[in-house]
Amino acid sequence: MATWNLYRHRKPDGSSKDWAVKSNSDGSITTRWGKTASKLPGVSNRRGIRQFVIEKQKLAKGYVFIAEVEIDGDGNVVFPGKTAATPSQLPEPDANPVFVPAPPVEALYWTVDCRAKRAVRVDLSIEVRRLIGVIQSVSDQEAKPEQDWDGWQQWIDATFNAEVFELSGQIKSAHGVLPWLFLLALKAKGFNGVEIDIVTETARDLSVDLKVEQDVLAFFGTDLDSIRDTAEALGLLKPRLNLAAAMSDTDDCWF
Fold first, then answer.
1. Mean pLDDT rounded to a whole number for the chain
2. Which of 38, 118, 167, 238 lies 20 to 30 A from 65 at CA?
3. pTM across the whole model
4. Which residues contact 140 (CB under 8 A, 6 or more apart)?
């Protein structure tokens, strides 16, 4: 088995996820990831980037180096001096984590690493264009020049030929909430082999649950009720049942 550098990202709720990387003889690097456990199921191979560069990026996002480990072809993690790793042998997150309120959001940073199979990349390309069309149809606000987000064109160009790609960028408050909702909708789809990360400037990972991201909504000067129609159209929220409308379609059965 090869030697990997293992990193961990701990969340305020006490959960954590792991990420590992190694360099290959052909100049490429291989990464593995998953929830903290004895096995890391996610895997991808990348070229054009050095190991120390991507490790630096992970450190900037809040990951902490754990140890040099061995990982077999199935993703099983073996720590030094161990014949096999079990969940109990892995360094555990703090048993009683101290809750620290998150600082106000000042900027969002996003990255995507698409190493999926071609069939998935085709589906991704179709979904990108569908979501952009949905956003255009439900948005009743015309973007001002300072609100233009270059990510729209980046995604269209990158997925045009359904090839593997990497993208990254920033979302400012002036760009409005729509770019963030677009990325969340793509992330929520969970395309196999497509890793989308959205973080704050403090490296806090953002979830696809809008109800727990009130500070991000405030960063864009909006709230859940204001963006509900768009979020429902993008599949980020379940449509609310309109009882009044439902009752209006029901015959009066009183007698």
1. 81
2. 167
3. 0.59
4. none
Best CA proximity match to 143, nearest among 99, 179, 109, 101: 179
Confirm if 29 and 57 have CB atoms less than 8 A apart.
no
2-10, strands of its sheet edge to edge: 42-46, 29-35, 16-23, 2-10, 64-71, 77-78
CA 212/CA 218 separation, integer angstroms:
12
Average the pLDDT over 167-176 and give the result. Answer: 88
Contact status, residue 83 vs residue 19, Cβ threshold 8 Å:
no
Residue 60 phi, psi (nearest 5): -65, -20
> Which one, of 128, 129, 236, 227, lies nearest residue 178 by Cα?
227
**SS3 category, 69:** strand
Distance CA 125, CA 120 (A): 9
Please report, for residues 61, 133, 178, 180, 214, the alpha-carbon distance to residue 227 in angstroms, rounded to integers and kept in the order given. Answer: 28, 17, 9, 12, 12
What does the pLDDT look like over 98-122, one tens digit per residue?
A: 444 455 677 788 888 898 999 999 9
Query: What does the pLDDT look like over 189-213, one tens digit per residue?
Result: 999 999 888 877 655 678 899 998 9
Q: What is the pLDDT of residue 146?
A: 42
User: Whole-angstrom Cα distance, residue 140 to residue 216?
Assistant: 21
